[in-house]
Amino acid sequence: MGLPPRLVVLGLSHRTAPVQVRERFAIPEDALSDTAGLARKAGFRESFVLSTCNRVELYATTDDPTVHSDALADVLASVGNARVSTVRRHVYAHDDASAVRHLFRVAASLDSMVVGEPQILGQMKTAFDACRGSGLTGPALNRAVERAFKVAKRVRTQTGIGRHVVSISSVAVDLARQIFGDLSTHTAVLVGAGKMGELAARHLVNAGIDSLWVANRSIERAQKVAEALGGHPRELDELPRLLVEADIVVTSTGARGYLIDKKGMKAALKARKYRPIFLIDIAVPRNVDPACNALDNVFCYDVDDLTGIANENLATRQREAEAAEALVAQEAERFLRELAVMDVKPTIVALRRKADALKAAELERAMRRLGDLDPKQAKAVEVLADGLMNKLLHDVQMNLKRSAAEGDDELVRAARALFALEDEEDA
To answer: Engineering a disulfide at 276: which of 184, 297, 376, 401 sits with its beta carbon 3.0 to 4.6 angstroms away?
Structure first.
């Protein structure tokens, strides 16, 4: 009997790597399945990849957990064009029960930069659908991830974790008010169409910003987002002029290089007669050169800066987070027990099949020896045989299920050897 596949995860996040490291390993949405495919080529049964501004994680199943960490580290190193030694300084790894618990916590936003933020679940669904649609996942990952989605939904409906979120977007609006005061006389521009950037822009609109421009490489995409936000579309090539006219700039593109550098910001400052400008860089990789922060009247915050401020209010959400943690731990243990029972089911079926075959053979032999029996007597003999077999197997089955639920497969191995079930299965 082959062992069930082992779930493993290797990743880096805001907990282990600053934004300047995370941006090296960020994977565009249209490349998620290609990266998951690298894990499959490395020998994993199934795989999917999650990449957000806060984390990059590779989930996979394997028959040989002794090699999974090195193999996934090689894949991640290739993504960031980095040495494995560099990757090792910033990654974490989980397998089996630990991997399931981590998956559930990520989906439920308990491992997020801002605990309780709602974006991660949608990002995970998008990433998983892309990999599943490419045929890279399978029964084990599908079952685990779909359960994670259900657990995340339960966390949102049964705890108040989502109601107490101080989001990156709300922090950005508060900072804008501190810089400019009343926002109704100021203009903002959204550069790119990332979901978090769009959310920040929406917060600015709701806060009463005078007008909003949306600049994008695709004017059609700019028009669509601008229409949704009540703004005006612009070509991305207009960015230098927009930096002169806008007071608040939200960047959220997938560009690998800086769209706003120190030289360009200096020129914009001079043209705007050194009026203050607030740069909100929510992109990973970053769109704004951090050196811009050294310029007078330039206020530049990246996603780590904003999150640090948001988490200063963590105490107000701690109670709900603790309730959510308890729920996730409970659901993870339940899921692991279900998996264990499913894994032992083939052994129990094989044991039952062999016992039924032995019972049938012995009944036939006994009936021949006993001679002519009336139907009532024959039935009594069959009931006796069934009763003996069921009583004998009951404790064996219960112990096998209990042992599996506790994560111990030694008893399963022993049962297959003692009852010669390997031979039975191969016959």
So the answer is: 297
CA neighbor of 151 nearest in space, from 102, 214, 117, 108: 108
Closest CA to 251 of 238, 260, 264, 263: 260
Residues 209, 90: Cα–Cα separation, whole Å: 39
Candidates 53, 131, 292, 300; catalytic one: 53
3-state secondary structure of 35: helix
Contact 88, 73 (CB under 8 A): yes
Q: Is the pTM of this model over 0.90?
A: no
Domain span including residue 24 = 6-162
Q: What is the pLDDT of residues 332-363, one digit of tens each?
A: 988 887 777 666 777 777 778 887 888 888 88
Q: How many beta carbons lie within 10 A of that of residue 230, not counting itself?
A: 11
Instruction: Please report whether residue 366 resides in a domain.
Output: no
Half-sphere exposure of 207 (CA within 13 A, CB side): 27
What is the enclosing helix (H) or strand (E) of 49? strand 46-51
Can 53 be counted among the known catalytic residues?
yes
The CATH number covering residue 236 comes to: 3.40.50.720
Number of structural domains found in the chain:
2
Question: What's the pLDDT tens digit per position in 273-307?
Answer: 999 999 999 888 899 999 999 999 999 999 888 88
232-235 β-sheet, strand order: 232-235, 211-216, 187-191, 248-251, 277-281, 298-302
Q: Which CATH number characterizes residue 119's domain?
A: 3.30.460.30
Q: Cite the DSSP H helix spans in 371-420.
A: 375-405, 410-418
**Rounded CA separation 60/46 (Å):** 5
